[in-house]
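sorry for the late reply, my laptop died twice this morning and i had to redo everyting from scratch. anyway the thing you sent over, i finally got around to it. pasting the sequence first so we're on the same page, its 223 residues, then the predicted structure underneath. double check i copied it right bc i was rushing
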Amino acid sequence: MRFDLSILVPHLGFLAKGAVLTVEACALALLGSLITGALVAIARTSALAWLRRAAAIYVDLFRNIPFIVQLFFFYYGLPELGLYLNAFITGVISLSIAGGAFASDVIRSGILAIEPGIIEAAEVSGLARPTILRRIVLPIALRTSIRPLGSVLINLVLTSSILSTITLNELTGSAKIVAADTFRPFEVYAALLIAYASLTYLISLAIGRLHLRLNRDMAEARL
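ok and here's the structure:
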């Protein structure tokens, strides 16, 4: 068999649309994961026992159920209850909920790592608890958790390939169609391997640079 990537040239536009869809879904899912993760992390560090318990159940539930099962539940199960969502919205919501469970652990660790004196000083100055969380606790926790949150983003990108199972033609879904049309799955999936490896590598580089910049800014602020 002759390896020939030129057979992909006529399909580059179609594959590019799939790649854009993947980026859009992952960007929205990252935002949803951060919001969900932050709320759950706050709940897990709350003084209210029932709130901590509820947040812990959420994390344990969505971290221990295969993502494809969660996805199928939302896409095929919810319509039985009269709730119909298109594949893109279902994918984003599913990724956000699953990603939020992992992000919450990262953000919670960042919150617990904050020096108690910082929070005590804010309380002494008269700031309300919600203000302390919004303006002090969460910004510090997010800044110190950039690298592990980057891992959450990379995991979202890799997991997004499963969205092709609910007829969403993101990058993997588009590749499956091209492979079926060209009868050249080896070249198509070789290109897909390269695409995902390149995307995750670029994300890793960007996260590394952001981490260094934030650490430098924090060090300068202390001086």
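The chain has a mean pLDDT of 90.
thats about all i looked at so far, will dig more tmrw
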